[in-house]
Each structure stands twice: as structure tokens, then as C-alpha cells.
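Private note to self, pasted from the team thread so I don't lose it. C-alpha cells:
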């Protein structure tokens, strides 16, 4: 890490020289040469990864797939071992209220799957510690996992409602379930930042000062004046950098991690907040909610068609009487998770589209492509983010475009050149065509 940082520091002088050359070429209107030079600057900001960066990212990719397949295998084992029928048999004499049975099944499945997932989650935590990213001790880590499981248990009434409608309405249970989920998604989008996030982290308003003033100026440009900007105590858990936008309506806010404030110079923090303001002004949280609801409707419809067929076909093996039998809850969750895993490329592609839009709009808000490029490069330098992930990995689960693409886009903007046409950027940009990288 130190070696990498030093290499990049040595490279800044070279960056300045190349930028000056690119600026000259950009102004003389020679796009192919400018394109080559943008690539060269990106190469300087993102030098070839050291073996530890490569090893870290390979381990992350492997862990993602292993963990997902492991979790699916865990649910399958619960189905094969007959957890649902066993639990319902045990409750038959004591519990008469049907929703209570479903909720008990739900809690049992949540706790069993959380315990099953623990070894790989522990491995992920150990890896973050080994690379020096995780700052939280085992106690807080375990408390976080317990909070995850308890939160998942709170969805038990939704499961009870689903089985209530499955029994009463049979094939078209997905209609009222979609309506409830639609309302639930919107309510949770409002409540999450004030009811759930504070269970894990502490938040404080960003204090008055030059940075706050800069953000307010950008917010005016973004057409989203007076945003709520909070600082999260991310340093209590990680050394990594981030910022995000969350909430809708009264709880809409931009959250900057305190690690980002501590490690990046103000120009780069502004570039990152510019990206978040773009999400804010493009209403991405709202659009995300609507797409989430549409996705849920589609998945419920799919389950309403598939579940009766699969239950009938496996009745003799698993002892689940019908699709509305709560004993089939682990089977329904297995199906749901298979569908969610298989739709990853779709969800990831939608997310990357949002992120590209936010990158492009964010540059016109922060008006500082060079700082944006350097901030993205900091994700590589500080967090070991992969600058060139394998295309298959990007396609399957990358929520953001690869770092090199983001750095190059920011450099193009910073150098006052449009990548498509090689023409000068519209005049709302900064007066100077480019600025030299600021000293860190
Ligand atoms: Zn984003």
C-alpha cells in the first residue's frame, strides 16, 4: 500500500506534464491524440495493481459467488431436511393462530440461514482485517450481524400476510402482496435513514465552513438547494471511503463518510459530493424505489406461477401439502433467492446506468473533472478497488462502472473535451480548460 502510494505521488509531476500536453492538444482539436493522452493520464492515476490488490479483488469476487451459492445450498438443506413440516408439526398442538405459525417459521429460517452464512461472512471480515480495512473488533462485528438478523426477523408479518392470501386467494395472492410491498418499499425508503441506519452508525450535520459552502453552491447548480448533508462515523468500522444519497421526502439526505473527509482534500470531497448531488437531482432514489416495486411485482407473479407446480412435483419428497402450506416457506424462500441471484446482471446493469448518469451530471455540478478523476483514483489507492475488473464480474454484480472508465470520463471533462465528438465542453464549465492536480 505504501509502495503504491509512493509510486502515485512520484507520478504527480508526470501527470502535470501530460495534462499540460493534453490541454494543448484538446484546444488544438486533435481528438485521437487527446484520447491517447487521456488514457496515458488514466494509466498514471491507475498504475498496474500490485499483487496484494489483485489478490484482494480475486478473493472478493470468489467470496461473492461462494457466499451466494452457499446461502442457496443452506436453504436447499432446510427444504431437504424438512424444517417447515417439522416446525409445523411441533407447533400443531400448541399454536392455533395461523399467522403465528408462519411468523415462527420465518424467524426459524432467518436465524438458521444467518447462522449458516456466518463462516463466509467471518472470512470476509477477517480478510478486511488482514488488509487493514476493518477497524471494528469482533464484538461490534458480531453485534452488527445480530442486528442484521433481528431486522430480517421483523419482516415476519409480511410472510404471514403472503400465506394468508395464498390460502384465501390461491393463484392471485401476488396482487394484494404487490400492493402491500409497494407501500412498504416507499415507507421503508422514508424511514430507513432515521429508523435503521442509526442502529449501526452515528450521524452529525456537516459543520459550517468552506466545504459546506462549496456543497451549497453545487446544490444550487444541481437544482437541489439546501440539501441535508450528514457525516457518518464510518471510521468506527472501516478505513474505506464513500458517500451516498438516501431517503425520500422528509428524510432525503446526502451522507459523507468521515473517512472520506479525513483522507481526501476538500476539492476531491466536493467532486464526490457532486456525484451524490447528481443522484439527488436526478431523483435516483425515487426511480430506484419504483423499479424495485416493479421488480417485486414481477417476482411475485413468477413465484405464484412456479410455486404450485414445484410444490406438487416435490410433495412426496418434502411433505409440503400445497403452495399455501406454511411448511413450504423455506422452499418459497429458496425459489425467491434463486430468482434474486439470477437477476443480478439486470439489477447491476440498471445500477451502472444510474451511476454513469450521476458521474456525467456530477461533473457539470462539481465543475472539476481533474479532482473527480483523482477522487476515483483514491478508491483504488486507498480501498484497493479494482481499476480493471473482469468483464464477466462487471456484468454480473458491479453496481458501478469500472474505475478506469470513471477516471477517463472525469479526465475528458476536466480537459474540456467531449469524448464523442472531440469538441470543447459547453460554456457552463469552469473558465479554465483544466487545472493542475492540487497538492495533497
Ligand atoms: Zn453513485
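Design output:
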Amino acid at each position: 500500500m505504501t509502495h503504491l502510494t509512493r509510486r502515485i505521488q512520484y507520478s504527480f509531476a508526470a501527470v502535470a506534464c501530460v495534462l499540460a500536453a493534453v490541454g494543448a492538444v484538446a484546444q488544438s482539436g486533435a481528438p485521437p491524440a487527446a484520447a491517447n493522452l487521456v488514457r496515458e493520464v488514466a494509466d498514471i492515476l491507475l498504475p498496474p495493481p500490485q499483487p496484494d490488490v489483485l489478490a484482494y479483488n480475486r478473493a472478493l469476487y470468489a467470496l461473492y459467488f461462494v457466499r451466494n451459492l452457499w446461502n442457496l445450498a443452506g436453504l436447499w438443506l432446510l427444504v431437504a431436511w424438512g424444517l417447515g413440516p417439522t416446525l409445523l408439526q411441533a407447533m400443531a398442538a400448541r399454536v392455533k393462530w395461523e399467522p403465528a405459525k408462519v411468523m415462527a417459521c420465518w424467524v426459524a429460517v432467518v436465524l438458521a440461514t444467518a447462522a449458516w452464512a456466518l463462516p463466509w461472512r467471518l472470512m470476509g471480515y477477517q480478510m478486511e482485517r488482514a488488509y487493514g480495512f476493518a477497524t471494528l473488533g469482533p464484538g461490534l462485528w458480531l453485534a452488527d450481524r445480530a442486528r442484521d438478523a433481528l431486522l430480517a426477523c421483523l419482516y415476519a408479518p409480511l410472510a404471514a400476510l403472503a400465506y394468508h392470501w395464498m390460502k384465501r386467494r390461491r393463484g392471485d395472492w401476488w396482487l394484494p402482496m404487490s400492493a402491500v410491498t409497494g407501500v412498504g418499499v416507499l415507507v421503508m425508503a422514508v424511514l430507513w435513514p432515521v429508523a435503521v441506519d442509526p442502529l449501526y452508525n452515528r450521524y452529525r450535520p456537516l459543520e459550517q465552513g468552506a466545504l459546506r459552502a462549496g456543497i451549497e453552491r453545487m446544490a444550487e447548480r444541481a437544482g437541489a438547494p439546501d440539501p441535508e448533508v450528514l457525516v457518518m462515523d464510518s471510521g468506527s468500522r472501516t478505513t474505506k471511503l464513500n458517500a451516498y444519497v438516501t431517503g425520500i421526502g422528509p428524510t432525503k439526505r446526502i451522507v459523507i463518510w468521515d473517512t472520506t473527509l479525513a483522507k481526501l482534500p476538500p476539492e476531491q470531497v466536493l467532486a464526490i459530493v457532486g456525484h451524490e448531488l447528481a443522484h439527488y437531482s436526478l431523483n435516483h432514489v425515487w426511480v430506484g424505489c419504483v423499479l424495485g416495486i416493479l421488480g417485486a411485482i414481477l417476482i411475485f407473479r413468477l413465484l405464484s406461477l412456479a410455486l404450485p407446480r414445484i410444490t406438487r412435483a416435490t410433495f412426496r419428497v418434502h411433505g409440503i401439502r400445497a403452495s399455501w402450506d406454511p411448511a413450504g416457506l423455506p422452499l418459497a424462500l429458496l425459489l425467491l433467492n434463486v430468482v434474486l441471484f439470477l437477476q443480478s446482471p439486470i439489477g447491476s446493469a440498471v445500477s451502472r446506468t444510474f451511476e454513469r448518469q450521476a458521474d456525467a451530471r456530477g461533473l457539470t455540478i462539481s465543475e472539476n473533472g481533474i479532482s473527480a478523476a483523482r477522487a476515483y483514483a483514491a478508491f483504488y489507492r486507498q480501498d484497493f478497488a479494482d481499476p480493471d475488473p473482469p468483464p464477466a464480474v462487471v456484468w454480473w454484480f458491479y453496481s458501478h462502472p469500472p474505475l478506469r472508465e470513471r477516471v477517463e470520463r472525469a479526465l475528458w471533462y476536466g480537459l474540456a473535451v467531449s469524448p464523442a465528438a472531440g469538441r470543447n465542453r459547453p460554456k457552463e464549465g469552469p473558465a479554465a480548460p483544466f487545472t493542475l492536480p492540487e497538492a495533497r
